[in-house]
Amino acid sequence: MATSGKQHTRLGEQAWNKMSKVNAEFFALTYGAMVMQLVQDFEDTAAVNAQLDTMGYNIGVRLIDEFLAKSGTGACADLRDTAETIAKVAFKMFLGVVAEVANWNADGTAFSVVLYDNPLIEFVELPPQHCELLYSNVLCGVIRGALEMVQMKVECRFARDVLRGDDLNEIRVELKEVLAEQMDDQYFEGM
Amino acid sequence: MAAPGQRLHILDRKIAVPGSSYAYPTTRDTRVGIVSASSNAYAAAGGRTTEVSLSAFSFLLSEMVQHVQARVTSIDALERRLEEAGYAVGLRVLELQQFRDKSVGKRKTRLLQALQWVSADMWRALFGKTADSLERSTENADEYMIHELQPITNVFVSVPPDLGQLNCAAYIAGIIAGALDGACFPATVTAHTIELAGQEANITAAGGPRCKTVFLVKFSEEVMRREAQLA
Which end of chain A is more exposed for a tag (fewer CB within 10 A), N or C? Predict the structure, then answer.
Protein backbone atom coordinates (compact mmCIF):
# COMPACT_ATOMS: atom_id res chain seq x y z
CA MET A 1 0.00 0.00 0.00
CA ALA A 2 2.85 2.34 0.86
CA THR A 3 4.26 2.40 -2.65
CA SER A 4 0.92 2.94 -4.28
CA GLY A 5 0.23 5.75 -1.81
CA LYS A 6 3.40 7.47 -2.94
CA GLN A 7 2.42 7.01 -6.52
CA HIS A 8 -0.89 8.73 -5.90
CA THR A 9 0.87 11.63 -4.25
CA ARG A 10 3.19 11.97 -7.22
CA LEU A 11 0.29 11.86 -9.68
CA GLY A 12 -1.47 14.50 -7.62
CA GLU A 13 1.58 16.78 -7.71
CA GLN A 14 1.92 16.35 -11.44
CA ALA A 15 -1.74 17.11 -12.09
CA TRP A 16 -1.61 20.14 -9.79
CA ASN A 17 1.42 21.55 -11.59
CA LYS A 18 -0.46 21.44 -14.87
CA MET A 19 -3.50 23.35 -13.65
CA SER A 20 -4.02 27.09 -14.04
CA LYS A 21 -4.33 28.63 -10.63
CA VAL A 22 -6.32 31.33 -8.95
CA ASN A 23 -5.92 32.99 -5.61
CA ALA A 24 -7.32 30.74 -2.89
CA GLU A 25 -8.59 33.68 -0.87
CA PHE A 26 -10.60 34.97 -3.80
CA PHE A 27 -11.99 31.47 -4.22
CA ALA A 28 -12.89 31.29 -0.54
CA LEU A 29 -14.58 34.70 -0.63
CA THR A 30 -16.51 33.73 -3.75
CA TYR A 31 -17.69 30.55 -2.11
CA GLY A 32 -18.68 32.60 0.93
CA ALA A 33 -20.67 34.97 -1.28
CA MET A 34 -22.46 32.02 -2.83
CA VAL A 35 -23.32 30.42 0.50
CA MET A 36 -24.56 33.80 1.67
CA GLN A 37 -26.92 33.99 -1.29
CA LEU A 38 -28.23 30.52 -0.51
CA VAL A 39 -28.77 31.48 3.11
CA GLN A 40 -30.78 34.47 1.91
CA ASP A 41 -32.74 32.46 -0.64
CA PHE A 42 -33.67 29.57 1.65
CA GLU A 43 -35.09 30.16 5.08
CA ASP A 44 -34.18 26.74 6.31
CA THR A 45 -30.62 25.63 7.01
CA ALA A 46 -31.41 22.06 5.99
CA ALA A 47 -32.51 23.35 2.57
CA VAL A 48 -29.24 25.24 2.22
CA ASN A 49 -27.31 22.07 3.05
CA ALA A 50 -29.31 20.14 0.47
CA GLN A 51 -28.79 22.83 -2.16
CA LEU A 52 -25.04 22.86 -1.53
CA ASP A 53 -25.02 19.10 -1.99
CA THR A 54 -26.97 19.39 -5.25
CA MET A 55 -24.62 22.07 -6.55
CA GLY A 56 -21.69 19.86 -5.66
CA TYR A 57 -23.31 16.96 -7.48
CA ASN A 58 -23.68 19.09 -10.62
CA ILE A 59 -20.04 20.06 -10.35
CA GLY A 60 -18.99 16.46 -9.74
CA VAL A 61 -20.63 15.06 -12.87
CA ARG A 62 -18.72 17.55 -14.97
CA LEU A 63 -15.53 17.57 -12.96
CA ILE A 64 -14.91 13.86 -13.47
CA ASP A 65 -14.41 14.51 -17.19
CA GLU A 66 -11.66 17.00 -16.58
CA PHE A 67 -10.18 14.79 -13.91
CA LEU A 68 -9.93 11.73 -16.14
CA ALA A 69 -8.60 13.80 -19.03
CA LYS A 70 -5.90 15.61 -17.12
CA SER A 71 -4.91 13.56 -14.10
CA GLY A 72 -3.29 10.65 -15.89
CA THR A 73 -4.88 8.09 -13.60
CA GLY A 74 -6.26 4.92 -15.10
CA ALA A 75 -9.22 2.90 -13.95
CA CYS A 76 -9.09 2.19 -10.23
CA ALA A 77 -8.52 -1.42 -9.24
CA ASP A 78 -10.69 -1.39 -6.13
CA LEU A 79 -12.37 0.95 -3.69
CA ARG A 80 -9.14 1.44 -1.76
CA ASP A 81 -7.51 2.64 -4.93
CA THR A 82 -10.48 4.91 -5.60
CA ALA A 83 -10.31 6.38 -2.11
CA GLU A 84 -6.59 7.12 -2.41
CA THR A 85 -7.14 8.66 -5.84
CA ILE A 86 -9.84 10.98 -4.50
CA ALA A 87 -7.79 12.06 -1.52
CA LYS A 88 -4.32 12.33 -3.02
CA VAL A 89 -4.94 13.13 -6.68
CA ALA A 90 -8.36 14.79 -7.06
CA PHE A 91 -8.23 17.03 -3.99
CA LYS A 92 -4.69 18.03 -4.86
CA MET A 93 -5.51 18.68 -8.49
CA PHE A 94 -8.49 20.94 -7.89
CA LEU A 95 -8.02 22.44 -4.46
CA GLY A 96 -4.28 22.15 -4.02
CA VAL A 97 -4.60 20.23 -0.77
CA VAL A 98 -3.96 16.61 0.05
CA ALA A 99 -6.50 14.66 2.07
CA GLU A 100 -6.01 11.44 3.98
CA VAL A 101 -8.04 8.25 3.78
CA ALA A 102 -8.94 6.77 7.14
CA ASN A 103 -11.50 4.80 9.13
CA TRP A 104 -12.27 1.93 6.81
CA ASN A 105 -15.17 -0.16 7.98
CA ALA A 106 -14.82 -3.92 8.38
CA ASP A 107 -16.36 -4.75 4.98
CA GLY A 108 -14.16 -2.27 3.16
CA THR A 109 -17.19 -0.47 1.74
CA ALA A 110 -16.98 2.78 3.65
CA PHE A 111 -14.13 5.17 4.33
CA SER A 112 -13.47 8.69 5.45
CA VAL A 113 -11.70 11.44 3.59
CA VAL A 114 -9.96 13.51 6.21
CA LEU A 115 -9.20 17.06 5.23
CA TYR A 116 -6.79 18.95 7.46
CA ASP A 117 -6.65 22.05 5.33
CA ASN A 118 -9.90 23.14 3.73
CA PRO A 119 -9.54 26.12 1.40
CA LEU A 120 -13.30 26.74 1.47
CA ILE A 121 -13.38 27.74 5.12
CA GLU A 122 -10.73 30.44 5.08
CA PHE A 123 -12.03 33.48 7.05
CA VAL A 124 -15.20 31.64 8.03
CA GLU A 125 -16.91 31.47 11.34
CA LEU A 126 -20.44 30.17 11.66
CA PRO A 127 -22.75 32.61 13.41
CA PRO A 128 -24.86 31.00 16.16
CA GLN A 129 -28.11 31.12 14.18
CA HIS A 130 -26.49 29.02 11.44
CA CYS A 131 -24.67 26.50 13.60
CA GLU A 132 -26.42 23.67 11.73
CA LEU A 133 -25.05 24.81 8.40
CA LEU A 134 -22.78 22.31 6.68
CA TYR A 135 -20.66 25.02 5.14
CA SER A 136 -18.49 22.80 2.97
CA ASN A 137 -21.27 20.39 2.01
CA VAL A 138 -20.56 21.10 -1.64
CA LEU A 139 -17.57 18.75 -1.36
CA CYS A 140 -19.84 15.81 -0.48
CA GLY A 141 -21.88 16.49 -3.59
CA VAL A 142 -18.78 16.69 -5.76
CA ILE A 143 -17.55 13.27 -4.60
CA ARG A 144 -21.01 11.75 -5.01
CA GLY A 145 -21.49 13.21 -8.49
CA ALA A 146 -18.05 12.29 -9.73
CA LEU A 147 -18.23 8.70 -8.45
CA GLU A 148 -21.68 8.19 -9.91
CA MET A 149 -20.23 8.93 -13.32
CA VAL A 150 -17.79 6.06 -12.86
CA GLN A 151 -20.53 3.62 -11.90
CA MET A 152 -20.30 3.94 -8.15
CA LYS A 153 -23.30 4.99 -6.16
CA VAL A 154 -22.13 6.41 -2.87
CA GLU A 155 -23.50 8.31 0.05
CA CYS A 156 -21.46 11.19 1.37
CA ARG A 157 -21.88 13.25 4.47
CA PHE A 158 -19.84 15.57 6.60
CA ALA A 159 -19.02 13.58 9.72
CA ARG A 160 -16.78 16.17 11.30
CA ASP A 161 -16.39 19.83 10.48
CA VAL A 162 -13.84 22.28 11.85
CA LEU A 163 -16.40 25.07 11.67
CA ARG A 164 -18.69 23.20 14.02
CA GLY A 165 -15.97 22.68 16.59
CA ASP A 166 -14.41 19.40 15.48
CA ASP A 167 -10.67 19.14 15.20
CA LEU A 168 -10.68 18.18 11.53
CA ASN A 169 -12.90 17.85 8.49
CA GLU A 170 -14.08 14.35 7.81
CA ILE A 171 -16.21 13.34 4.86
CA ARG A 172 -17.72 9.89 5.27
CA VAL A 173 -18.13 8.03 1.99
CA GLU A 174 -20.20 4.86 1.87
CA LEU A 175 -20.41 2.70 -1.21
CA LYS A 176 -24.03 1.70 -1.78
CA GLU A 177 -23.81 -0.18 -5.02
CA VAL A 178 -21.78 -0.54 -8.13
CA LEU A 179 -24.03 0.36 -11.03
CA ALA A 180 -24.09 -2.06 -13.92
CA GLU A 181 -23.22 -0.59 -17.24
CA GLN A 182 -26.24 -0.84 -19.46
CA MET A 183 -27.52 0.61 -22.66
CA ASP A 184 -30.31 3.08 -22.71
CA ASP A 185 -33.60 1.75 -24.14
CA GLN A 186 -33.26 4.18 -26.99
CA TYR A 187 -30.11 2.39 -28.04
CA PHE A 188 -31.95 -0.89 -28.55
CA GLU A 189 -34.83 0.77 -30.34
CA GLY A 190 -32.41 2.02 -32.92
CA MET A 191 -31.12 -1.47 -33.66
CA MET B 1 -27.28 45.54 -1.42
CA ALA B 2 -26.78 42.96 1.28
CA ALA B 3 -28.17 43.98 4.63
CA PRO B 4 -25.49 43.86 7.32
CA GLY B 5 -27.49 41.54 9.55
CA GLN B 6 -27.70 38.87 6.88
CA ARG B 7 -23.98 38.57 6.26
CA LEU B 8 -22.02 35.59 7.34
CA HIS B 9 -18.96 36.67 9.19
CA ILE B 10 -16.47 35.73 6.58
CA LEU B 11 -13.74 38.18 7.39
CA ASP B 12 -13.10 37.22 10.97
CA ARG B 13 -9.86 35.40 11.34
CA LYS B 14 -10.58 31.93 12.47
CA ILE B 15 -9.99 31.27 16.11
CA ALA B 16 -8.58 27.86 16.84
CA VAL B 17 -11.16 25.69 18.49
CA PRO B 18 -10.29 25.04 22.15
CA GLY B 19 -8.91 21.59 22.62
CA SER B 20 -8.22 21.26 18.95
CA SER B 21 -5.20 19.23 18.05
CA TYR B 22 -4.86 21.03 14.76
CA ALA B 23 -2.96 24.27 15.18
CA TYR B 24 -3.63 26.90 12.57
CA PRO B 25 -0.43 28.27 11.11
CA THR B 26 0.24 31.73 12.46
CA THR B 27 2.49 32.94 9.70
CA ARG B 28 0.92 33.76 6.42
CA ASP B 29 1.89 34.72 2.96
CA THR B 30 0.99 38.28 2.11
CA ARG B 31 1.83 37.77 -1.51
CA VAL B 32 -1.40 36.62 -3.07
CA GLY B 33 -2.59 36.39 -6.61
CA ILE B 34 -2.39 34.08 -9.55
CA VAL B 35 1.12 32.81 -9.43
CA SER B 36 2.13 30.44 -12.16
CA ALA B 37 2.61 26.89 -11.00
CA SER B 38 4.67 27.33 -7.89
CA SER B 39 5.30 24.55 -5.50
CA ASN B 40 6.92 27.03 -3.12
CA ALA B 41 3.75 28.96 -2.53
CA TYR B 42 2.42 26.25 -0.27
CA ALA B 43 5.59 26.01 1.79
CA ALA B 44 6.06 29.78 1.93
CA ALA B 45 2.63 30.13 3.43
CA GLY B 46 3.46 27.87 6.31
CA GLY B 47 1.57 24.92 4.92
CA ARG B 48 -1.44 27.02 4.08
CA THR B 49 -2.79 26.85 0.58
CA THR B 50 -2.62 30.07 -1.34
CA GLU B 51 -3.95 28.79 -4.60
CA VAL B 52 -6.66 26.57 -5.95
CA SER B 53 -7.22 25.52 -9.53
CA LEU B 54 -8.93 27.82 -11.98
CA SER B 55 -11.24 24.91 -12.79
CA ALA B 56 -12.48 24.74 -9.22
CA PHE B 57 -13.23 28.44 -9.30
CA SER B 58 -14.99 28.19 -12.65
CA PHE B 59 -17.14 25.27 -11.53
CA LEU B 60 -18.12 27.24 -8.47
CA LEU B 61 -18.96 30.39 -10.39
CA SER B 62 -20.96 28.38 -12.89
CA GLU B 63 -23.08 26.91 -10.09
CA MET B 64 -23.51 30.35 -8.59
CA VAL B 65 -24.70 31.80 -11.89
CA GLN B 66 -27.06 28.88 -12.47
CA HIS B 67 -28.52 29.20 -9.00
CA VAL B 68 -29.18 32.88 -9.51
CA GLN B 69 -30.46 32.35 -13.04
CA ALA B 70 -33.15 29.98 -11.80
CA ARG B 71 -34.49 32.71 -9.54
CA VAL B 72 -34.65 35.72 -11.79
CA THR B 73 -36.63 36.55 -14.88
CA SER B 74 -34.38 39.03 -16.65
CA ILE B 75 -30.73 39.35 -17.56
CA ASP B 76 -30.62 42.65 -15.74
CA ALA B 77 -31.81 41.07 -12.53
CA LEU B 78 -29.28 38.28 -12.95
CA GLU B 79 -26.46 40.79 -13.24
CA ARG B 80 -27.76 42.73 -10.24
CA ARG B 81 -27.71 39.57 -8.13
CA LEU B 82 -24.15 38.80 -9.22
CA GLU B 83 -23.17 42.37 -8.38
CA GLU B 84 -24.75 41.99 -4.97
CA ALA B 85 -22.69 38.88 -4.31
CA GLY B 86 -19.58 40.70 -5.48
CA TYR B 87 -20.34 43.76 -3.37
CA ALA B 88 -20.00 41.78 -0.15
CA VAL B 89 -16.72 40.33 -1.40
CA GLY B 90 -15.42 43.78 -2.39
CA LEU B 91 -15.91 45.17 1.11
CA ARG B 92 -13.91 42.30 2.53
CA VAL B 93 -11.17 42.45 -0.05
CA LEU B 94 -10.70 46.14 0.74
CA GLU B 95 -10.45 45.48 4.45
CA LEU B 96 -8.11 42.54 3.99
CA GLN B 97 -5.77 44.34 1.63
CA GLN B 98 -5.70 47.53 3.70
CA PHE B 99 -4.93 45.47 6.75
CA ARG B 100 -1.94 43.89 5.04
CA ASP B 101 -0.71 47.08 3.43
CA LYS B 102 2.27 48.20 5.47
CA SER B 103 2.77 51.54 3.75
CA VAL B 104 2.32 54.84 5.58
CA GLY B 105 -0.63 57.04 4.71
CA LYS B 106 -2.37 54.17 3.06
CA ARG B 107 -5.84 55.63 3.22
CA LYS B 108 -6.73 56.87 -0.20
CA THR B 109 -8.58 60.17 -0.09
CA ARG B 110 -8.43 61.22 -3.72
CA LEU B 111 -10.59 59.74 -6.39
CA LEU B 112 -7.79 58.83 -8.75
CA GLN B 113 -5.77 57.19 -5.98
CA ALA B 114 -8.73 55.04 -5.08
CA LEU B 115 -9.30 54.04 -8.68
CA GLN B 116 -5.65 53.22 -9.18
CA TRP B 117 -5.68 51.16 -6.05
CA VAL B 118 -8.61 49.19 -7.42
CA SER B 119 -7.28 48.70 -10.92
CA ALA B 120 -3.71 47.94 -9.87
CA ASP B 121 -3.33 46.75 -6.28
CA MET B 122 -6.67 45.05 -5.74
CA TRP B 123 -6.56 43.61 -9.23
CA ARG B 124 -3.12 42.15 -8.61
CA ALA B 125 -4.19 40.65 -5.31
CA LEU B 126 -7.27 39.02 -6.79
CA PHE B 127 -6.26 38.15 -10.31
CA GLY B 128 -2.44 38.24 -10.27
CA LYS B 129 -2.25 41.06 -12.80
CA THR B 130 -3.19 44.69 -13.11
CA ALA B 131 -6.21 45.75 -15.14
CA ASP B 132 -5.45 46.34 -18.80
CA SER B 133 -6.22 50.02 -18.64
CA LEU B 134 -7.96 52.71 -16.67
CA GLU B 135 -9.59 55.47 -18.62
CA ARG B 136 -11.59 58.56 -17.92
CA SER B 137 -14.73 59.19 -19.88
CA THR B 138 -14.41 62.13 -22.22
CA GLU B 139 -18.08 62.93 -21.91
CA ASN B 140 -18.78 62.75 -18.21
CA ALA B 141 -16.36 63.82 -15.54
CA ASP B 142 -17.79 61.36 -13.03
CA GLU B 143 -17.33 58.31 -15.23
CA TYR B 144 -14.26 56.11 -15.42
CA MET B 145 -13.64 52.89 -17.24
CA ILE B 146 -11.54 49.92 -16.25
CA HIS B 147 -10.71 47.68 -19.20
CA GLU B 148 -10.03 44.00 -18.84
CA LEU B 149 -9.42 41.77 -21.85
CA GLN B 150 -10.21 38.52 -20.18
CA PRO B 151 -11.82 38.67 -16.77
CA ILE B 152 -11.31 35.52 -14.76
CA THR B 153 -15.08 35.03 -14.60
CA ASN B 154 -15.38 34.80 -18.37
CA VAL B 155 -12.56 32.39 -19.18
CA PHE B 156 -14.81 29.39 -19.76
CA VAL B 157 -18.06 31.21 -20.40
CA SER B 158 -19.72 31.51 -23.75
CA VAL B 159 -22.97 33.39 -23.48
CA PRO B 160 -25.82 31.78 -25.44
CA PRO B 161 -27.64 34.12 -27.86
CA ASP B 162 -30.84 34.13 -25.82
CA LEU B 163 -28.99 35.68 -22.90
CA GLY B 164 -27.74 38.48 -25.11
CA GLN B 165 -25.73 41.02 -23.23
CA LEU B 166 -25.10 38.99 -20.11
CA ASN B 167 -21.60 39.43 -18.79
CA CYS B 168 -20.68 37.30 -15.79
CA ALA B 169 -18.05 39.87 -14.93
CA ALA B 170 -20.97 41.62 -13.23
CA TYR B 171 -19.64 39.72 -10.24
CA ILE B 172 -16.34 41.60 -10.53
CA ALA B 173 -18.24 44.87 -11.08
CA GLY B 174 -19.86 44.19 -7.72
CA ILE B 175 -16.47 43.65 -6.13
CA ILE B 176 -15.27 47.00 -7.48
CA ALA B 177 -18.40 48.73 -6.19
CA GLY B 178 -17.98 47.11 -2.78
CA ALA B 179 -14.33 48.08 -2.48
CA LEU B 180 -14.98 51.66 -3.61
CA ASP B 181 -17.97 52.03 -1.32
CA GLY B 182 -15.95 50.69 1.58
CA ALA B 183 -13.34 53.35 0.87
CA CYS B 184 -16.06 56.06 0.91
CA PHE B 185 -16.25 56.48 -2.83
CA PRO B 186 -19.79 55.25 -3.49
CA ALA B 187 -20.25 54.47 -7.16
CA THR B 188 -22.37 52.37 -9.42
CA VAL B 189 -20.29 49.91 -11.37
CA THR B 190 -21.54 47.93 -14.33
CA ALA B 191 -19.82 45.44 -16.60
CA HIS B 192 -20.18 45.76 -20.35
CA THR B 193 -19.02 43.58 -23.19
CA ILE B 194 -17.32 45.52 -25.93
CA GLU B 195 -16.23 43.98 -29.17
CA LEU B 196 -12.62 44.59 -29.97
CA ALA B 197 -11.91 46.79 -32.94
CA GLY B 198 -8.89 48.06 -34.84
CA GLN B 199 -5.49 47.66 -33.29
CA GLU B 200 -6.62 45.78 -30.22
CA ALA B 201 -8.31 43.19 -32.39
CA ASN B 202 -5.10 42.63 -34.31
CA ILE B 203 -3.06 42.10 -31.19
CA THR B 204 -5.33 39.48 -29.76
CA ALA B 205 -6.35 38.00 -33.10
CA ALA B 206 -4.27 34.88 -32.59
CA GLY B 207 -6.71 32.83 -30.59
CA GLY B 208 -7.27 35.59 -28.07
CA PRO B 209 -10.62 36.89 -26.89
CA ARG B 210 -12.73 38.79 -29.38
CA CYS B 211 -14.43 40.88 -26.75
CA LYS B 212 -13.25 42.76 -23.77
CA THR B 213 -15.03 43.74 -20.64
CA VAL B 214 -15.31 47.35 -19.63
CA PHE B 215 -16.27 48.19 -16.09
CA LEU B 216 -18.03 51.53 -16.09
CA VAL B 217 -17.57 53.29 -12.79
CA LYS B 218 -19.94 56.16 -12.19
CA PHE B 219 -19.24 58.01 -8.96
CA SER B 220 -22.04 59.50 -6.95
CA GLU B 221 -22.50 63.23 -6.68
CA GLU B 222 -21.09 63.62 -3.20
CA VAL B 223 -17.80 62.06 -4.30
CA MET B 224 -17.46 64.54 -7.13
CA ARG B 225 -18.29 67.44 -4.81
CA ARG B 226 -15.69 66.35 -2.31
CA GLU B 227 -13.18 65.81 -5.07
CA ALA B 228 -13.76 69.37 -6.32
CA GLN B 229 -13.14 70.74 -2.82
CA LEU B 230 -9.92 68.77 -2.44
CA ALA B 231 -8.56 69.82 -5.79
Answer: C
